[in-house]
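Milestone 3.1: sequence recovery, worked example.
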């Protein structure tokens, strides 16, 4: 974190704001489910911007959740028109005042041992680690554990939001962010 970030003198840049907006969209993803992996013919990438229209599969009324993030980057909603998905929907306005001012490159180990901030970050790291372990088991032949992984994702989201309400330092205008570090086994 730079001194400018600590005292809050600098405003968020668009890249950071888009990353944070995409992070906020995760709660919407959790509410609607993971989406269908085969809901579009191609996946967008930075090299494809803007994504050309892709043919929608018969019966596909919704794109996979990945595309919600791409909508933020494109600044428009994807809509299905004449059997194709395209970024022709309503504009997605960008409002920098609604962006969380989070620390860059959060690191649990840099937080003071025993502090409330360190404990909250460690809780997020443990929840993240457990979620990854469960997902690993799902893809290792135990699909019955998928619902457990989804519940862990929801719990991680709640812990992350609580962490993002904690100031990064006394008097700072920035807030903590999940480090998404693997927790060490105890």
């Amino acid at each position: 974190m730079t001194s400018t970030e600590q005292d809050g003198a600098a405003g968020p840049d668009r890249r950071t704001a888009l990353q944070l907006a995409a992070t906020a969209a995760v709660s919407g993803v959790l509410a609607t489910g993971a989406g269908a992996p085969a809901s579009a013919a191609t996946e967008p990438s930075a090299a494809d911007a803007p994504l050309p229209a892709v043919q929608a599969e018969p019966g596909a009324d919704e794109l996979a959740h990945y595309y919600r993030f791409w909508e933020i980057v494109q600044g428009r909603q994807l809509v299905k028109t004449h059997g194709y998905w395209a970024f022709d929907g309503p504009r997605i306005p960008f409002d920098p005042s609604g962006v969380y001012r989070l620390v860059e490159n959060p690191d649990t180990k840099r937080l003071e041992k025993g502090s409330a901030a360190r404990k909250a970050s460690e809780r997020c790291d443990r929840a993240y680690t457990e979620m990854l372990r469960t997902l690993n088991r799902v893809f290792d032949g135990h699909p019955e554990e998928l619902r457990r992984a989804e519940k862990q994702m929801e719990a991680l989201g709640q812990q992350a939001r609580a962490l993002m309400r904690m100031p990064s330092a006394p008097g700072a205008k920035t807030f903590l962010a999940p480090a998404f570090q693997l927790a060490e086994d105890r």
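The longest helix spans residues 116-139. The beta strands are 54-55, 79-81, 84-86.
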